[in-house]
Amino acid sequence: MSDQGQTIEHLLQLMRLEPLEVNLFRGESRDIGTPRVFGGQVLSQAILAARATVQERLIHSLHAYFLRAGDPDAPIVYDVDRSRDGRSFTSRRVVAIQHGRPIFTLAASFQLEQEGLEHQFALPDVPGPDELAEPVPLSEEQLSHVPQKFRRWFNRFGPFEFRQVVPLDPVSPRPGPPYRQLWFRLRGEVPADQGLHRALLAYASDFHLVGTATLPHGLSFLDGRLVLASLDHAMWFHRDVSVTDWLLYACDSPSTSGGRGLARGLIYDSAGRLVASTAQEGMIRWRNE
Q1: Is the overall model pTM greater than 0.85, yes or no?
Q2: Which sequence positions are flagged as catalytic?
Q3: Separation CA 265–CA 189 (nearest Å)
């Protein structure tokens, strides 16, 4: 199997939860080169744990809180509370537990497919993915300025491909406007399961979002003085989506204050359909010497 095939298979393995008991599931953790469990992993696994208790309905919204840093060397147990099963909507609450303590909570709502009014914001006028160059790996000289614990992040072959409309330099950042757009897609094929595609979209939505709040300040997560961590994550799914097709992530940051930064995102498919919206607040602090 190629490196690309192995990477996709590793991601799908993360999405396969082990049933332990009624409403209890266990998921593997994956080290992606960062010092803690990637937030998108916990988010997507919690969605799939909730989904395993729901019949014939798709997730349409979620609100989550990151309580503690996850250990990438240990599995995570997901405890699902079946809050309500209504005629059109189903509500679930999920607590992710590691080493006997909650590290994450999720409230999610699922809905029967229904018809209704439709409108949306238009697709931003930006170059398409085929008009953008593929990211260039950091040079050895650039990597020499990257902390050792983050070097694997820049040298790994991830399951998602990203192409930024305006490339940013994480080693030598400069202050800029509080918004950015980037195209992304899964590098391989996955089953045509809309519930799985929405969970994988949630996984990918945690990349690049809260970092948008640092752009006006010319900061990088590589700066050892900077403490940057997700506090919460909200997401709304508007239409069916395929993560194997190119998707545009248009992010902005309305404000940073009080040691926190707020970022929002709109996700479009290549046909211009708005498929999802996101919002996230992160802790942004200077490390105490």
Answers
A1: yes
A2: 206, 230, 280
A3: 25
